[in-house]
Amino acid sequence: MEEWVQIARELMAGLLKKMGIETEVEGSIKEGDIYLDIKSDEGGILIGKHGRTLESLQVLVNRMVNKQAKKPMRVVLDVADYKKRRADSLEKMAGRLGENVKRNGKECTIGPFSAHDRRIIHMALKEDPALKTESVGEGEWKKVKIIPVRKEE
User: Fold this and answer.
1) pLDDT value at position 153?
2) Taking residues 56-62, what's their average pLDDT?
3) Is the pTM of this model over 0.85?
4) 4-10 contacts at long range (C-beta below 8 A, 24 or more positions apart)
5) Which residues contact 130 (CB under 8 A, 6 or more apart)?
6) Domain ranges of the chain
């Protein structure tokens, strides 16, 4: 597995070099997945709006690694702990909006979000019995609807 971390690091570093971005790529294994942490002064460019560039780079490096690998592997990219900060931000937003929905009893639709971001929102509100969530829309970028649960009288 360590050899695949090295291969993934080299592929990612080569791709970023061809893009003209100076970086340092560190790799590790967490929960059976390959994690690549990219350190760069141009982190904002690598992350992109709402992490879309980072997700695209992750898809590319996954395809590049899995084209060479004999068994499927998952490669996860991160730049300056962006994914953790994004998850915290989404959880807080979901909590605030969930409270608003409970307070005024009207559903709320937010987004569009990637599948990963929608999952974070769904999980953040899953334990609240007064709310339910559902993804709405077509394609990769769907919205999330937060719905108050009506009590039966």
Assistant:
1) 45
2) 94
3) no
4) 4/34, 4/65, 4/69, 4/73, 5/29, 5/34, 7/65, 7/68, 8/34, 8/36, 8/61, 8/65, 8/75, 9/36
5) 102, 148, 149
6) 2-80, 85-148
Domain 85-148 carries which CATH code? 3.30.1370.50
Report the alpha-carbon distance of residue 36 to residue 62 in Å, rounded.
11
For 77-138, the DSSP string reads EEETTHHHHHHHHHHHHHHHHHHHHHHH---EEEEEE-HHHHHHHHHHHTT-TTEEEEEESS
Taking alpha carbons only, the member of 65, 71, 70, 68 closest to residue 36 is: 65
